[in-house]
Amino acid sequence: MNCKYANLTKEQIENCILPFIPKNKRGFSSKFEMTDIFKCIIYKLKTGCQWKFLFIDIECINPPFSWQLVYYFYRKWCKQGVFETMFLTFLEIQKDKLDTEKLNLDGTHSLVKKSAESVAYQHRKKAKTSNMLIITGGIELENSILNADKGFDCKKLIQACHRRKLFPNIIENTRNRKKNKRGRKRFFIRRIYLQRFVNERCFAWIDSFRTLLIRFDSLDSCWLNWHFLAFALILLKV
Questions:
Q1: Across the strands, what pairs with 198?
Q2: Nearest residue to 80 via CA among 24, 140, 145, 10
Q3: Three-state SS for 13?
Q4: How far apart are CA 172 and CA 150, in angstroms?
Q5: What is the rounded (10 degree) CA torsion for 64, 66, 67, 72?
Q6: By the 8 A CB rule, do 170 and 7 touch?
Q7: What is the pLDDT of residues 110-153, one digit of tens each?
Q8: Looking at residue 161, what DSSP letter applies?
Q9: CA torsion sign, 15 to 19 to 21 to 26?
Q10: 220-237 vs 67-79: helix axis angle to the nearest 10?
Q11: Pairing state of beta strands 127-136 and 120-122?
């Protein structure tokens, strides 16, 4: 796996990942190494391979277990909120490095190849997709500037920003306008708007995880947890 966000050493997994995995309260503990199982989950996230082909060319592991076991632990950890907790914890650790003054909102579409929740036909992509809306920036939103392109220029979003004490820096969409808009000039600073390029960098990081490019998960919870894991790995390595 030739990606710095997916290449975790055994020590990094043991020190930074395994503490999030809950111990069994009763019964026998697993005889398998959780480090190897987590490496397999990262490999699936990075390569986008099908579960049943997980061990065709996986590196550095000679697994004594089946792909069904890896899938079992992934689903189990999704239900336990392991990946979401991991993401929120790493975000809290890195929050001092985040710029909370300017937030950038954008969306990214993932092609859907089977029946799934939250799916709609996207004419621009000419396929069914799931849309993930992402804000890059800090944690506290009050008095921040929200950058968004003309696709987000709607009255409801602008009103929602004002209710939350945000400054919507959204470029005006004039596609369906027949005459000039009356009233005072809307808030818009082009210099700040041009800093939205960080969204494209964020999407490039997402696209490096092949599982997030094409969706095969039927449940939204499983699909969302892949994103939690991807961003947790990014926050761990930045």
A1: none
A2: 24
A3: helix
A4: 6
A5: -100
A6: no
A7: 777 777 777 777 766 667 776 666 665 545 667 778 788 787 78
A8: H
A9: positive
A10: 90
A11: antiparallel
